[in-house]
Amino acid sequence: MSIDMNEEDPVRRAIGIGLCAQCTERITGTLPTSSSDTVCPVCFGLLAPAEMNHLTEQVLQTHRDSDYVTEHYSVALTFPRCMALRQVTAVLHVLRPSPADSLPVVMGKIKDIKDVLQTHLRTTCTTLGTYLPDQGLLVSVEWTHPKGNEGFAFLSTLPERIYTPPGRSPEISTTVIKEALSRMTVHDYHTHHPDPLEGWHLDQPATLALRLSHSAILLMGRYVKLQRGLAQTPWVLNGERKTKTSVQELIALSLLQRAMPTVDLAAAELTEYNASDPSKKQRIGNGHCKGKFFNCYANSEVDAMYKFHSCGREDIDVRMLGCGRPFVVEVLNPHHSHFTPEQLLEMTASVNQEAIHRVQISHLHLASKAEFDSMNTMIETKAKTYRCVAWVSCDLDQSTALLNEINQRTDISVEQKTPIRVLHRRTVMTREKTIHSIHCKAINTHWLLVDVTTSSGMYVKEFIHSDFGRTTPSLGDLLKCRAEIIQLDVLDLV
Questions:
Q1: In angstroms, rounded to a whole number, what is the distance separating the alpha carbons of residues 388 and 14?
Q2: Cβ of 410: how many Cβ atoms within 10 Å?
Q3: Do residues 457 and 431 lie in contact, with contact meaning Cβ atoms separated by under 8 Å?
Q4: What is the C-alpha to C-alpha distance for residues 223 and 309, in angstroms, rounded to an integer?
Q5: Minimum mean pLDDT among 131-135, 161-165, 251-255, 280-284: which range?
């Protein structure tokens, strides 16, 4: 097809380079009475009415075939990488803007292909729910084309102020292309891309691939841990499970059954990668150990299902009592995302029944990102109250006055070197902490009940026994004798 570069009518110039009626109208503002019957070289045929109807049918049918239950949806569209360049080429050829004009200004007057398709899906896919950007069901649509990666060679001729090569990556991303275009003028484009219509025409439309997923939901609550010997997260050492279950699993796996009702979690096989050969997996038991603190992996189906977060953690031999510790089960790609208050109560009861005498949860609800961020902030700021049972070498019957003196003290400054028991996983440093209040009550001659409220991050066990002098002052220092911790409970997070 011959192209008349001197044609004065923008609509005829658009038709002359093979643009479809929809792209001609987007660029010129006028819907032509006739247009090319070939595949549009700008939109790759995506804006043809038949293709847009097909897209809607595919989205709705894919959703009907899935088990997603949702109230909201959003759309993510990915196009052949060269589409941005082709759109600029068409606009400059059809509208002939001034050489001094910047490309962002010129292109800002044109309705983008992505905007057209997103508007179309929002108006034709209302059965999916209410459209909310980045929330709910995510409809991901990707189009590819054999010519999708062509036409980038001229970018290497651009000055550094416009284009920076992508470093080690041999592939030029759509983002890099758009950033280069945003720094160009019309003159820059014509100078460095003198023959943009070379290889212009397409002999087939783009191919569509569609995938559904869902934004994560945050199930927040509080847990009480009633049993000692129960780790917060799965305890795996050298490929061997040290405990049968954990707080994380007792809570999360039960909740996941409601968010992912079609997945058989009980059949999940827990595995850990061989450190010397990541391709080798070793079976270490049943369950799921995808958590914030662990480097172990479940099978491919379950591994990506959730993350467990909590406001701090207690040791395996420590109970968590009082109002409980805030936690969040972040369900990734949930199939059910909305729960009524009645359903949340049922889910709470289910966890509590399955974990009876071990873990109990309360205040379960769907949380916002702001609530989640607030919980993470609490980890570093909240004071904590503990109850300790301690043995001391001194005769408490002779220490009443000293105990009363200690009980009157507040805001005791304590310096703690990194405890010996955590040296393998914590930076060696001295941390300044505070005992806000302390109350010691003698049980008998050598046994003591100690309630302490401390600043966040204090190692309470070491405050009792001093960790060979690495924590000063310790309870032993205050009592002027040797002290050992026997039991420890967390009573409250203030």
A1: 81
A2: 11
A3: yes
A4: 12
A5: 280-284
